[in-house]
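Following the same procedure, sequence and fold were stored together, as reproduced here.

>
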Amino acid sequence: MLLRFYQQGVDSRLNKIMDFMQMKKTVSLILFGVISLASSKVMALDCVGAGNVVLDSVVLDRMVYLANASNGDIIWRSDVFTRNITCSSGITENVYIYAYPFMGAETLPQNVEMGLIFDGVDLGTMSTGSSLDSRRKDTGWRVTSGNDLVKNGVTFQTYLKKTGDISTAGVTSITLFQLDGVGGLNTMPSAKNYKFNISGWNNVGTINCNPTVTNSTFSFTALTDQAFAGSATNQANHPTISVACSGGSSSLNMTQSISGRLNLAGAGSSFSTNKTGLTLNIFYEGTELIPNNDIIVTIPITAGNGNKTFQFDVKPKLSTLQLNNPSWLFSTTDEAITSSIPFSFTPTLVNLN
């Protein structure tokens, strides 16, 4: 009996000791958690806008895109936004931009790819199936421990590239990006990681625009010595592009211009003429036009209609030069040099007032 009481006393003391040890372990874990939390807060990367703004948001006044645009066309660009951003950290690290960080949780427009231009760099388009890591880009901003990094005049812009029949049904707000560290998104409620979103996606309209091109034949007279020197630039005819748009009156009234692809058809690196051995180099606003290579031009629009006449610098280029060859070059009379160049214009983008 005495032995049993003794054993019970020993067991009781052992239980108390074990309870005490467990309590110490629990306290240690709690203290470790508190210390870790405090440490993470000290070391966390913070980025805020002017006035310590963390969540920056704007509302679309109106969005209009071309219903008859082709797949692969950029059919809409937002305004260019400019912000002042300040970042700080308890360690020295780089600032990363996470494009469309909540792509899996937010409702996005259907059959488009979302693109982002940040601080002058086009980060490209992102599809809904892309991973967060693939949408993480190094800004090149380096924050040193204990010192604020101030970036004034940071610009960014979003754009949409069409991949099919577009729908914005159910789209309310889209987060364009979040600034954070290399380790991923800080989603704690107290996190100070600047993010920018756009709402108002219900303010969407569409229009259809059809172009007409006239005067696509260059015709001018050149003196033989001018052709030889490549200095004949007199152009008699100027091609004109007209655009007629249809759609809702509010969308048409807000449309300021239509941008699109201008293409001059040809072969090789220059344009052919009616003269043997003579081709044309054509320049528009200082840029040389290459056959079958698109350039982007803009046509002003008023009440759904507009036109623009294009003036090109045309310079002849001799590919063959021998005695009496080409014969027309050695003529004592002026030579009529003509070139018929097929033009095409494909509207892609609506620019609003």
About this structure: DSSP finds three helices and 24 strands in the chain. Helices lie at 2-43, 224-229, 249-254.
